[in-house]
């Protein structure tokens, strides 16, 4: 028996990187998929590559920044297979820019997508999971949700905010048999830095060495699906950067010193 046989999994940011790799992993584990992101063509490509039956995958284009639209999208998602077993809030955007130079509009965009959109989607799906008396909500946070590095103040703030919100939610929905899994990747080999937003709102457009040498998304996806299957509360993955979580907890001043060294000269 596959772990997600007949389970319905809704993934945002499914058109590339971690979300795409996770779609393939869930497909292998027997899930039916709802794939969301903004680009339909990319979602169709991913759907094809899952090798699932046409009827097992539903493409639902969504712009997570468009918060007013989210309740209607959630209704469509629930109506399609009649239930949602896993909501994987994965869509997100990173940042490269100093606090002094970054426009307020950039902070608003990051918070809208990485935080408010995620809350809106979660609130829209929760009543269905409560009726089912089961469900799992997973969120791609980041090691940047546990510690902070320069040039990513808005990104770090948005990911830290997720921890406050979802730790609170976990205790509220425990009695409904709904679990919450916060996923904290380190450096994963995706286009996240290319797609990151710069101080003036333009695309950063460069591949960071850390990402280029990071963990493969396929390995990351295996660990994510495993953490969700086991209802883990919080998981870390990546290379030696994961040690930062423990430095922050036990040697915070040492971590500050290391992090200072990451400020571009
Ligand atoms: N790659 C890393 O090193 C890393 C590390 C920690 C956390 N993360 C997190 O992983 C998640 C996925 O990022 P990734 O690394 O796969 O990068 P990516 O840029 O390849 O993927 C981002 C996904 O989000 C989607 N997306 C962006 N804006 C959207 C919007 N407004 N509405 C709907 N979808 C939108 C994109 O289309 C894409 O599918 C993000 O939340 C990111 O913060 C990535």
TrEMBL record:
Keywords recorded for this protein, A-Z: Oxidoreductase
Coiled-coil annotated spans: none
Protein EC: 1.-.-.-
GO MF: oxidoreductase activity
Keyword Ribosomal protein in annotation: no
Taxonomic superkingdom: Bacteria
Family, per entry: Belongs to the short-chain dehydrogenases/reductases (SDR) family.
Name of this protein: Oxidoreductase SadH
Lineage start: Bacteria, Pseudomonadati, Bacteroidota, Cytophagia, Cytophagales
